[in-house]
Amino acid sequence: MDSNNNDAPALNQEKAEKKISLRADTHSFDTDIAKDYGIDVALMYKHVTHWVNYNKARKTNFNEGRYWFYNTIDEIAAHFPYWSAKQVERILKKMFDLKLILKGNFNKTPMDRTGWYTVNYEKEMHIPKSGNGNPEIGAAIPNTNTNTKKTLSKDNVKQDAIASTPISISKDKLIERAPFVSTTEKQHEKLLADFGEEATLGSYLELSDWKEFKTPKERKGSDYKRIQSWGIDRYYQKKQRLEKRKNYVGGETNKELALKIAKEFNPKIAKEKGIRIDVTSTAMLFIFTQSAMESQSVLFKENGFREQVNSLMRKYKLI
Question: Are residues 27 and 152 in the same domain?
Answer without folding.
Answer: yes
